[in-house]
Amino acid sequence: MLESRQEGVLPQLECATAKFQSLQMAIKSTIFKAVLQIADMDRHYYADHALTLAQHPSETNERMMVRLLGFALYADNALTFGKGLSSDDEPDLWEKDLTGAIKRWIMVGLPDERIIRKAGGRAEQVVVISYGRTADIWWNQVHDKLQRLNNLTVLQLPTETTLALAAVASRNMQLQCTIQEGHIMLTSAAGMIEVEPKVLQGILYAGTF
Q1: Domain boundaries, the chain
Q2: Which listed residue, of 77, 144, 193, 201, carries a Cα 20 to 30 Å from 70's Cα?
Q3: At what angle do helices 159-167 and 61-73 cross, to 10 degrees?
């Protein structure tokens, strides 16, 4: 009798475990959709992109919107979102050519200088889009170690700008982005945000073809 009861309990436990694992996968990331219309007069790039962004549980809206801004700055049909926070081997965005070679490796935030140098050996161009209240401290700590990387571009975004970007984040976004002379205007139903990235190292569009 005991054995038959155990046989009945095991399938229930397996079913409960499977449901729990499915629930974990379902809450692993939050999906955001964005229709992004880009008019980049600096690169003569004009296109509409329907984007899907998976927000890691530990990722803030601020960081996610900086990723979206990074896409707008370097938009290309070959540019895709990487695993970012979910993997040490992939950036937040990357662009590969038809052979699989990495043309552009884009990271957002304040990455460790060892990760940046490693990326510099794998990609034709590495871009770091830094932001946050400690961005100046981070740059003071790492810039001497990164000066020899001639394929590195480091940008810095003002905190008030990234907080404004975070405020317009929604599960379904319609955005228009105009870029001219490195000046970005991002327009949504909530209004317009002006973004002026500060170039700390390198050239904004180095490696663009």
Answers
A1: 30-201
A2: 144
A3: 100
**Torsion of Cα atoms, 77 then 164 then 91 then 44, to 10°:** 30
Q: Looking at per-residue confidence, does 121 or 26 come out higher? A: 121
CATH number of 30-201: 3.10.640.10
pTM of the model: 0.84
d(CA 131, CA 155): 8
Whether residue 9 has pLDDT greater than 70? no
pLDDT in tens, 154-181: 999 999 999 999 999 999 999 999 999 9
